[in-house]
């Protein structure tokens, strides 16, 4: 078994079903098994169930992380047959039906009758992994909180700087990828500038803030297409977002991005302090493990090419669902994960025969653009504007876990969308000493050396490294409410 050189593992227990992950698909399986009384162990690297569609609202201060990331144990507490374990699954042996997982610095082996993998996906950089260190992603709660701190820092520093070039860069935001996440973030950042910071910071106006949305396809929200994509583009442009389609990002550094127009080959440079990457996904590492152990084929993004019953490769008792798989080009969205999870649970419970092909039920698609604007497609029915926006809020409210989280979300939405407040925006000031006043130099000090030192100091002040800023951002902080 791979990884055995890191220490011996022994089978300490067995269970009927092992579920790996804590997203929509994993919980759909767990709830079905829980209601049926089937013993299962759910292993996850995190203790929360993340409601990913609302991450952008955490990043922009509309709601708090706790409202979209409730405890997995709390959700499954009513099922005595449920066993939730914090750990990371690192290997699987289909021959003896065991998984190996790491927890508390040790390796454990757990046997199963059925294995369900639902580990989701992470951001894809299309072979340019160095972009991860230069951009902001939005896949986890930590990503959202990190982006929120960056947004507030940019506005706070722009408020006090006397350098017009630095101010312009601080108030420039580039969003790469015009899928739902990119569109939501671009619209919200511009709305922040116009409705929140323009009210709370006197010397910053909405028009001072530049938000550029870059998309490689020839339309925003490509899966929708037609008039819905066009409505989204027009709505963003009316809100002040610069929408650039048919354009690829060819390079990114600490001070901006280089764009190339697909049709003409023309390149141009955008300078910005903040670049947000939301273009594409790739499967998490456990997909590679499953592919190697079962012989399952994968696509370029590392997602598993599962059979139509979600079985993986040669194994007939290992299933994979959600964002980590591809099946009939179905969308990598929460409905696909939840329906897939329920289908797998029915096969495990014997409610449908093993090997039953999955039938996806399209309940429609929707995306929010900004305040009072969204798009919705249900069958042949297409809605835009305020009605679609209300439907978007209602549907996402239903999928939030717990009455308390729903109630707080509604109150937060009222304060943010009907008023001008951001209830969960606060600034964490870095605990760094201010630079001391320059000491008087000796009369015989070499002038050339002093000039070089001054020049170096000026360059470092005007163009600090993003990596240095992020390192400082991880230091101790003192929360200072600004809402």
UniProtKB/TrEMBL annotation:
Pfam family, one: Pyr_redox_2
Keywords of this entry: FAD, Flavoprotein, Membrane, NAD, Oxidoreductase, Transmembrane, Transmembrane helix
Gene Ontology terms for molecular function: oxidoreductase activity
Ranges of compositional bias, category Low complexity: 473-483
Domain FAD/NAD(P)-binding: 16-340
Transmembrane segments: 383-403
Compositionally biased tracts (Basic residues): 463-472
InterPro entries in UniProt: FAD/NAD-bd_sf (IPR036188), FAD/NAD-binding_dom (IPR023753), NDH-2 (IPR045024)
Catalytic activity: a quinone + NADH + H(+) = a quinol + NAD(+)
EC number: 1.6.5.9
UniProt region (Disordered), positions on chain: 437-483
UniProt key word NAD: yes
Biased composition (Basic and acidic residues): 438-462
Protein name: NADH:ubiquinone reductase (non-electrogenic)
Biological source species: Rhodococcus artemisiae
């Amino acid at each position: 078994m791979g990884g055995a050189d890191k220490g011996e593992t022994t089978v300490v227990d067995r269970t009927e079903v092992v579920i790996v992950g804590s997203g929509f698909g994993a919980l759909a399986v767990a709830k079905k098994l829980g209601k049926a009384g089937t013993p299962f162990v759910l292993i996850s690297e995190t203790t929360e169930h993340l409601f990913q569609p609302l991450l952008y609202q955490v990043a922009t201060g509309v709601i708090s992380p706790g409202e979209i990331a409730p405890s997995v144990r709390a959700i499954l507490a009513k099922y005595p047959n449920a066993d939730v374990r914090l750990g990371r699954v690192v290997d699987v042996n289909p021959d003896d039906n065991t998984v190996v997982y790491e927890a508390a610095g040790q390796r454990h082996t757990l046997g199963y009758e059925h294995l369900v993998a639902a580990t989701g996906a992470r951001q894809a950089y299309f072979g340019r992994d160095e972009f991860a260190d230069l951009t902001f992603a939005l896949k986890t709660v930590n990503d959202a909180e990190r982006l929120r701190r960056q947004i507030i820092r940019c506005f706070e520093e722009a408020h006090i700087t006397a350098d017009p070039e630095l101010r312009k860069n601080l108030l420039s935001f580039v969003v790469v990828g015009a899928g739902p996440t990119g569109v939501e973030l671009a619209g919200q950042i511009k709305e922040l500038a116009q409705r929140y910071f323009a009210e709370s910071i006197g010397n910053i106006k909405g028009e001072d803030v530049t938000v550029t949305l870059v998309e490689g396809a020839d339309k925003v929200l490509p899966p929708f297409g037609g008039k819905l994509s066009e409505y989204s583009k027009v709505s963003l442009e009316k809100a002040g977002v610069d929408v650039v389609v048919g354009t690829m990002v060819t390079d990114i550094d600490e001070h901006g991005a280089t764009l190339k127009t697909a049709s003409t080959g023309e390149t141009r440079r955008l300078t910005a302090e903040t670049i947000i990457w939301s273009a594409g996904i790739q499967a998490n590492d456990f997909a590679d493990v499953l592919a190697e152990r079962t012989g399952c084929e994968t696509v370029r993004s590392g997602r598993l090419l599962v059979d139509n019953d979600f079985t993986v490769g040669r194994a007939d008792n290992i299933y994979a669902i959600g964002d980590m798989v591809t099946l009939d080009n179905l969308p990598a969205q929460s409905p696909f994960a939840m329906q897939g999870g329920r289908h797998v649970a029915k096969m495990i419970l014997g409610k449908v025969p093993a090997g039953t092909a999955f039938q996806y039920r399209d309940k429609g698609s929707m995306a929010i653009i900004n305040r009072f604007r969204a798009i919705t497609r249900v069958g042949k029915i297409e809605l835009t504007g305020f009605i679609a926006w209300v439907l978007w809020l209602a549907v996402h409210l239903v999928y939030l876990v717990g009455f308390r989280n729903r109630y707080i979300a509604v109150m937060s939405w009222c304060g943010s969308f009907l008023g001008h407040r951001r209830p969960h925006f606060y600034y964490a000031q870095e605990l760094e000493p201010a630079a001391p006043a320059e000491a008087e130099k000796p009369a015989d000090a070499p002038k050339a050396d002093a000039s070089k030192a001054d020049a170096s100091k000026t360059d470092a002040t005007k163009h600090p490294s993003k990596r240095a800023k992020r390192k400082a951002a991880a230091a101790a902080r003192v929360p200072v409410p600004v809402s």
